[in-house]
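seq as requested:
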Amino acid sequence: MKLCGVDTVAIEPGEIIRWELTATAGAVPVAVPPSENEKFHLDAMRRSGTAGWLALTLEFDDAIDLEDLTRRIRSLLDRHEVLRCHFVSTDDDHRRHRLAPGHVAVQQVRDPDSGMHDAATLTAVVLDEIAATCSPTAPLRHYLAAVRRPSSTTVICAFDHCYVDAFSLAVIASELAGGDGDPSIATPVSFLDIRAAEESAPDVDPDDPRLRAWGEFLAANEWTVPEFPLDLGLGPGEATDVHTEIRTLMSAPEAGRFDDFVRSRSARTYPALLTAVAGAVRDAGGPDELATILPVHTRFNPCDRSAVGWLVGNAPIMIDAGDDGGPTLRTNTDRLGDALPLARIGLTPVYMAYADLLRAHRNDVFMVSYVDYRKLPVPESVPTRQISSSRHTDAAQFWFWRDADGIHLRARYPRTSTADATMADVFAALADRLALDGLGRRHHRAG
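struct tokens:
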């Protein structure tokens, strides 16, 4: 899986075939309320009028059979009930509705003009159609298409973020590539069943040590929601278009040597990457400890890994930017281990406990993510790519990912000249720190 943004993606020309989805029966209300993520997303959409989406592309090395792909799409929709759901919103509530399996008509529609487009025009057309199609507030508002050529096919699937996360796109890729898409395979775990179990869980006790740990983190950060600590050229309340930076940080052999280096210091790869980020930000003029939020998937039961849905929690962490090599790596490995369980309680009890103290100067939260796609059900023989929708931003955010080709970074930050200069310094320092001996060398602050 490769990651990109709307400003870095390109789709090669060809004939566009779309699949129109139509309900053949009425959707019925479901007594499973929206999750925390879904509610935040729907509330944000209500305020801004726009929703965020995630898209997946699969690159097949032939002109694939469209009828076979139609069957796989139909199977995908029947197997994952969250893709047959939508929300009906009122002034104070969001109510989930669901279509029963087998009640979705899937119809191929060809675009007679698509063969005339060059890559830039075709990409713009597809992205515009995705933005116009994907929505959580009407049934079956997904974008499903293929760009077919004599010897290759790009399959494009886009969904409102309410329905999918990064893990979900890996599951969908596997099914559409012909793996779990076989209808004879057992039905996957239902996202709604996972939600129902979450709803029936006991409330978080005010004395829960995980809630206290959140409070300690926020107090250490002066009760401010984590924000990127370097100047990005925007004042409070300002936001602008996003810039996406894609970099390969290590090839597969280099990543293997990096693993060995980190393990020799009794640490792990993810906290080593976090240590490098904290050190790079410090080198560019940032603090000695970096406060950030880690998005982590909440598929805690192995069987939940077959589910499609938005199953992500938030873990707070203070990352030590120290230069003492092994001790800092071990410190941050321990801190990561302490932080991950905090994602299990959700943000609602955190807001209930500390809302009167919290302050936020930015719209977006500074976060650092890491996904090892070698451990997800991504098809090995079909190249895949994740595309995230664009919006105005006022923060920097980092997504590290690992695949068979190595370790990579997608960074998103405001499109300003100040941010360009700031992030260039951070990226240079990050590359320096990810050299094999970089995490154990003394570094110097900028300025």
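The mean pLDDT is 92.
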